[in-house]
Structures are given as structure tokens and as C-alpha cells.
């Protein structure tokens, strides 16, 4: 199937209120341009190097989301143009993003990435850490950051109940933080599990292979 057909199918499966982040990692600029021309404006990449190479070659009204683990020493390479960093998994990182955003006189949107998967995952805040970080944010510690929501990834499994359970845990935390100060975005769900994520309350999904086709190497 063509990228256009894939894109239309994915779009048709998303309710109006659900935002689509088209995950273009490992795919060429020409494929991104093709999806852009279909009307898509939000794209996600997981590596600073790859994003920095693609950014200058594509239209400037793309809202770029970083969705992969970010090392503090690389924040400076994307601070000038990144729209949202979905993968904030430490206080050290949020401090660095705040500092670099200030240098460029801008505000960078971030999502707190929370560890919800039962399987061993390297990255993500524990629920308690996320709560503490949100308190610090609410007390005004990061003036050049806008925490707009939460991001999570479920265990890679066929067990739908397991996936559902994990997504619902993140939804619960979202509701809790949302009561203190409203949050916009609950980012959960990828190509294989986005319908479940939406059922569980996601209003933003990160979809790669269902649009662009399979990646040549695991990433
Ligand atoms: C690669 C990636 C996605 C998209 O995965 P697909 O299965 O290709 O849809 C979503 N979120 C994150 C964090 C990713 O790294």
C-alpha cells in the first residue's frame, strides 16, 4: 500500500479529538514531504542527529516532536526549533531544556515520559518522580518550559489486557495531575496499539510504520 493510502487509513481510525504524531524516524525526507503534502504537520523523530539533518530540508511550519531518549548534552542542537520534547525522563534533562529554551528566548513544550510497561525499560520516570517534578514545575522552577502532558509506552506484547492495564495507569496519573493544573496531552499508542490507547484516554498517538511502512532496521 502507498503512503497516501496508509495515511488515510490511520486518519480514518482517529476520532476528531485525537492528535496524530507521524513518526518518521529512519524514513527519508521525500517520504516526510509526501505526508506533509497530505496535510500532516506534526512529525516525530527519536534521534537528535537524524532530526537535525532533516529539519533544514523540510517546511518550516512542521511541528517537530522528539520522542526518543535525549541526552542533556544534545539539547542545544534542537532547542532553537523543537516544538515538543515528549521524552522528558529526568529533572536534570528538564533543567537543561529550560536553560537552552531561555537562551533562545522561547518556551519549549514537554511531556513527562512515565514508565508504565511491566517489561524492563530503560527510560521513563517512576510515577512518584513524575508527581514531584510536576510540583516543582507548578512552583515555577522551569519558566521556559510548558509541561503539556504525559507520554508512555506499553509493554511489547499481544496481551491486550496487559496493554490496557498499563495505559489506564497512565490515564489515572494524568487525571490526578490534571486536577492540580489542567494538562492538554496524553500521548499513548503506536501503530500496533493506538486503538487501545484511544479507548484508554489517549488524545495523541505516535504512529510510524502504519503510515511509512516498516523500518529497515529496528529502532
Ligand atoms: C518508533 C516509535 C513510535 C512509533 O512506532 P511504530 O510502531 O512504528 O508506530 C512511537 N513512539 C516511540 C517512542 C517510538 O520510538
Automatic annotation (TrEMBL):
Keywords: Pyridoxal phosphate. The modification N6-(pyridoxal phosphate)lysine is found at residue 25. The keyword Glycoprotein does not apply. Residues 2-214 form the Alanine racemase N-terminal domain. It holds the Pfam family Ala_racemase_N. It comes from the Bacteria. Pyridoxal 5'-phosphate (PLP)-binding protein, which is involved in PLP homeostasis. Belongs to the pyridoxal phosphate-binding protein YggS/PROSC family. HAMAP family: PLP_homeostasis. This is Pyridoxal phosphate homeostasis protein.
